[in-house]
Amino acid sequence: MKKAQIDEILFSDNEDKNAERKQTLKEKFWVKLRETANRVPFIEDVAAAYYCALDPQTPNKVRGILLAALAYFVLPLDTIPDFLVGFGLTDDLTVLTVAFTAISGSITNSHRIAAKKALEGEPLSD
Questions:
Q1: pTM of this prediction?
Q2: Which of 9, 53, 54, 102 could form a disulfide with 66 if both were Cys (CB 3.0 to 4.6 A apart)?
Q3: In whole angstroms, what is the distance from residue 92 CA to residue 82 CA?
């Protein structure tokens, strides 16, 4: 995946697009996470990013980056279809990794605790 493609996904300042991504994320995130949990090596970070993206105290730029990356993760149509064994999640993981690097330090301990509880079967309210 080319840097230009990743930048286009992650660094949009379009508020309408971010609102749409937030809604998509709320509807599809946990289903996608359960489907891919055994194939994503940093699943707890992905769940923590979800809580960070929905946290109103998270800076808007960080929320936008995370909403874009997580929406890309949950949407079925992307650069490499997820059903391709061995390759399907490669582009998703690349986008998530770049997003996590860009927002380094914005995921708080409370986001990580919420993620850990959710992954242990105690989903918290959004």
A1: 0.75
A2: 53
A3: 8
The 3-class SS string of 106-118 reads CCCHHHHHHHHHH
User: Which amino acid, one-letter code, is at 28?
Assistant: K
Please name the residue that has the structure tokens 């860009």: 102
Nearest CA to 66 among 124, 108, 118, 121?
A: 108
Q: What is the DSSP string of 67-125?
A: HHHHHHHH-S-SSS-TTSTTTTTHHHHHHHHHHHHHTTT-S-HHHHHHHHHHHTT-PPP
Instruction: Give tens-digit pLDDT for 44-58.
Output: 999 999 999 999 999
46-83 burial by CB neighbour count: b if 16+ within 10 A, else e?
bbbbbbbbbbeebeeebbbbbbbbbbbbbeeebeeebe
- Whether 40 and 89 have beta carbons less than 8 Å apart is answered as yes
pLDDT tens, 78-118?
545 544 444 466 778 888 988 999 998 899 999 999 999 99
Distance CA(3)–CA(10), nearest Å, equals 10
**8-state DSSP, 58:** S
